[in-house]
Structure formats: C-alpha cells, structure tokens
Amino acid sequence: MCGIVGYIGYREAYPIVIKGLKRLEYRGYDSAGVMLYDGDNIKLSKTKGKVVDLEAKAANEISTNGTIGIGHTRWATHGVPNDVNSHPHVSNSGDLVIIHNGIIENYAPLKIELIKRGYVFHSDTDTEVLVNLIEEVQKKENLKLGKAVQVALNQVFGAYAIAVFDRKNPDEIVVARLGSPLAIGIGEGEYFIASDASPFIEYTSNAVYLEDGEMANIRLHKPMKVRKIKDDSLVDPYIQELQMNLEQIEKGGYDHFMLKEIYEQPSVITDTYRGRLHANEGIIQMSGVEDNLEKFLNAERIIIVACGTSWHAGLVAEYIFEEFTRIPVEVEYASEFRYRNPIINRKDVVIAISQSGETADTMAAIKLAKEKGAFVYGVCNVVGSSISRETHAGSHTHAGPEIGVASTKAFTTQITVLIMMALRLAKAKGTLSKTDFHRYLQELEIIPEKVKEALETDAKAKEIAAIFKNTQNCLYLGRGYNFPVALEGALKLKEISYIHAEGYPAAEMKHGPIALIDEHMPVIVIAPKQGHYDKIVSNIQEIKSRSGIIIAVVTKGDTQVRGLADYIIEIPETSDALSPLITTIPLQLLSYHIAVMRGCNVDQPRNLAKSVTVE
Ligand code: F6R
C-alpha cells in the first residue's frame, strides 16, 4: 500500500507533491513526508498523521521551494506509524533519499550485514535498509545512481515501487517497480511520478505505466530510459493516453467521496454496459468474452478469485453463472486459494475480480492459475492496473476512480459486468430461454433508473441510522442472490463505523446466530418480493418471536413484512438475479449515515487502505 509522488521539472514541486499525496491518501494515511531539492539543499519534513498534518509541519520546518520533490503517504508495514518511520528515508551519507511502496522481505539479513559495515539505522523500516544498500553498492562499486539501484534491487526480495534521488547528481530521479504500481506522467520539460495517474492528470494526459521488473532513469530535459532490472535490456515504453479527468477525482459538492460514489451508481452502471448491451437487438457484446468464447464454452468449471467486496460480487456471480449458464462455479478468497495448492485444470476458467487491479493476494492467485495452465479473465476497474495487464483477457467495469476506501460503485459495476458475461454465455450455450434472455436484457437496461429510485431511500436510511447509531452489534440476513448482499452490508457497516456486524444466509441463523437475538439486536433483513420471500418471512417471524428488532428492505407495496418489521425501507421491484444491484443501495446509505453520525472518518477508516498491495 502507501502512495508515492514525485516531480522533476520547472514548476514548484511542493504544491504538486502535496496535492498528489492528498489524492493518493486512499492508499494509506497513517503518516506522510516530503523531500524537496532547491538546487543546493535537501529539505525534508515528515510526520505521523495525514497529509494536512504534514502541510502544517512542513510550513514551520522547511522552506518549500524547489523544482524537484518526492513525497509519501504511508500505510505501516514495518514499524509503527511515527515521525521516524515515515518516508522519505535518507541514506547514512545524507546523499540518497528514497520513497517506497511495498515490502522488502529480506531486509533483516541485509540490515545485519550493513550494520557490520558501519551503517546506523534510525527507523524500524525495511525502506531505510534499501536506501543504505543502494548507497553501499554505489560506494563500493563507484556506480551512478541508476546502476546502483539496479544492482541493489537484484539483491532484494519482495515488492516495491520506489523513487530515489541523489544529491550528487541532482537532475535525476530513478524509479523502479515490482509488484507495486508506478505511473510516470510525461509533460513538456517535466516528469511526474505517482502510484496512479491521479496526481498529475491536470498537467499531462501522457503516461507510462512501468511493468513489473522495470526501472527508469528520469532526467531533466532528456528522454526517459526504461530498462529491465534483471538484465539491463532497454525497453521501449508504451505511452498511454489517460482517460481520467479532474472532475472524476473531486468530491463534486458531496461531503464525502463515499456518498458521491454511492450517488454515481446509476450513471456508472450505464457506463459499464454502454456499447456492450443492446437490449432491443438482443445482443451483448464484450470483446474479451467474444475473443475467448470457446474457452468459456469449453470450461468445465469457473473459479472466481477476489478479496473483500470484490469477493462478495464474486458470490453474486456464482449464483448468476450457475443459474444462467449451468457451468459449475467456485468462489475463493484469493488469499486462501494461493496458499492451499488448489486443483486447477487447463479447462478451468479463472475470473479475477478487483476494483484497484493491484490487490496482492488476487495477483498471486492469478499467477498461480496461469502457471497451472488456466485461462484467466480479469474484471477490473482501474485501466492499466497490474491485474488487468496480468490476466489473459478481461472487461473493465468503467466505474471511474473510486476514492472512498469503502467500495460501493465498484461492487455494483462488477456485478453488472458479471451479469452481462453470464448472459452472453447463456445465449451461446442455449441455457436460458429466448424469452428470459430478452427479459434480462430489457431489465438490465432500465436498472440505472431503479438504482436512482433506490437512492430515494436516503432520507429513510438516515432516519434509521439516527436510531441505531449507537448499537454495538448488527446482524444482516439475506437468502439466495441477497445472501452476498447481507455480507456486503455487514462489511460496509463494520469498516466505516466500527460497529460489529455479521452477514448470514437467513436460514443459517437458527444454526447459531439466533442465540444473539434479543431486544437490543437490530437485524437487517433483505426481503424483496422475488426470490425466497415466504422463507424469509418465516425467518423474520423467528426473530420477532425472540424480541429482535427488524429493519427490512422490501419491495415497494409489500404488506406482509410491513406488518412484522419495526422499520421498512422500500425499493423498486426487479427480478431476483438483478436484485443485488438494488438491495445493496439502502445498505450502503445506512452504513454511510451511521458512520457520519458516529463522527467516523468515512472516506479513510482507521487501519484500512484502498489498495491492498501487501499480503
Ligand atoms: C471493502 C473494500 C475491500 C476491497 C478489497 C479488494 O469496502 O474496499 O474489501 O474490496 O480490499 O480490493 P480490490 O477490489 O481492489 O481487489
């Protein structure tokens, strides 16, 4: 995790680095730091806390002029969040300065070796070891910075995106990546470095995303040189035109990114199916699926790998794919899959789902599946991300940047892509009747309207939030397609409001969780008219008989659950398979309002980061 930013050019670097760090805070926000070079001096300021704390400290500590700068926002791995462990880290001579996103796994033996050679360490970080290793290599072999970085990186294991500055050669920044993302923005007489392109989109739309195992020497007024870290071979960098715009990464009048992203769902679901769904013609066209249709049609099994919210979208997809295509589906936590020697066959299709496209466990699961000969399909949001490049083929979700740490629009757009894939395959396999196929296409086309209608539950969600904001526990129940929605609702609540919440299949309640029910326990039941309505009504009765408090998400016009529940939230009707796109909306809003009322930092919940690039 962690976000890195750098600038080398003719403008003042400090405002670019600070603004960039703010945009990257989703990647970590427990400490931050900046280094500036003004032609004579290295100026360093770093602190525990957020980028605003850094700004306050830097204003008193350093003069902020200089046209070269690097900055870091941290999610601690080695060493607690404090001023000393914050990046940038400086080598013992004071000449080399580094920022690093990732983990150097063999830092301990390297540190012992360096200590034997007289190096002194001030922090507990692996990064301080790396910068001193580079210095040691540089001194011993009398190398320029780029070469020294390369030799040092060939001695380390782990993951990194780094930027290194050398006072002795101050018109250059050397960057490298393995396992952590790194984008380089190319302007006229200036370069930008960042973990993603958001820090520099207002300056340039040309970017190079370094591939794993590549490094670049970025020099003022010189073309950038990219080479392979391992064998020094030169690489012709691919300059990509960025699709992001500034508006997408700003709050646009909302109090929080999370709320903005919840409200964006009608439009981003439309973006997701635009050009792919042609309801009137009865066509679904997704180039990734089309180009690999035989692989999908011959699949004996689909294995879905993902983490967190993306895993919940995978669970929804399991129900959809099995019902629509009759292909057996397994859904795996990427972190478990990668370590349990899973059985993977050449006829398996693996679908990896990831908003960021950078999640380390999902990436490792993909590599494992590829090694074992499976065809791997990515469903990612971030274009150019590591996962979208590592997979054989894939479909982007087109949700636009998701900045709130809690995933919202990523979930619904992932489900949209997965539904379209299942429908396309069902058509090819003939496993859905023509009537059902056309009905789903028509329904999917009007889903954004229904999501818009579901957003009208906002006031009701707020009212209920005010009543339950101080609860300590919460149970979420759903059946069938809405069981994963129950899990997702519970995850949203716990991660942003720190209230303990559990999601369960409603019928499983009587095998244990029912013991938790008493007059203090709010139970959120997802009970739309389609699906297993009668069964869920029975579950509601079981809870009522034990004095539980029922908050029910029901279809507009419902009377039966209305008579039983303490609070109801009404949503528009849709078919069972598409209902997660609707039922999830009031649950997102409920969590959001509870977290705001509890004074929690909604967009940056404690201990979390948006992009989990460590195991
Ligand atoms: C929850 C959340 C996380 C992510 C998980 C996977 O709101 O955001 O659980 O879903 O870390 O991230 P991606 O989808 O980027 O692979």
TrEMBL record:
Transmembrane segments: none
Entry-linked InterPro entries: GATase_2_dom, GFAT, GFAT_N, GlmS/AgaS_SIS, GlmS/FrlB_SIS, Ntn_hydrolases_N, SIS_dom, SIS_dom_sf
Subcellular location: Cytoplasm
Enzyme class: transferase
Superkingdom per UniProt: Bacteria
Catalytic reaction list: D-fructose 6-phosphate + L-glutamine = D-glucosamine 6-phosphate + L-glutamate
Ranges of residues in domain Glutamine amidotransferase type-2: 2-221
Active site: 2 (nucleophile), 610 (for fru-6p isomerization activity)
GO CC annotation: cytosol
Keywords annotated in UniProt: Aminotransferase, Cytoplasm, Glutamine amidotransferase, Repeat, Transferase
Main location class: cytoplasm
Residues covered by the SIS domain: 292-431, 464-605
EC number per UniProt: 2.6.1.16
Pfam (any one): GATase_6
GO molecular function: carbohydrate derivative binding; glutamine-fructose-6-phosphate transaminase (isomerizing) activity
Subunit structure as annotated in this protein's UniProt entry: Homodimer.
Alphabetized PANTHER family for the sequence: GLUCOSAMINE--FRUCTOSE-6-PHOSPHATE AMINOTRANSFERASE, ISOMERIZING, GLUTAMINE--FRUCTOSE-6-PHOSPHATE TRANSAMINASE (ISOMERIZING)
The protein's role, per its UniProt record: Catalyzes the first step in hexosamine metabolism, converting fructose-6P into glucosamine-6P using glutamine as a nitrogen source.
Name the UniProt record assigns to this protein: Glutamine--fructose-6-phosphate aminotransferase [isomerizing]
Originating organism: Flavobacterium franklandianum
Lineage: Bacteria, Pseudomonadati, Bacteroidota, Flavobacteriia, Flavobacteriales
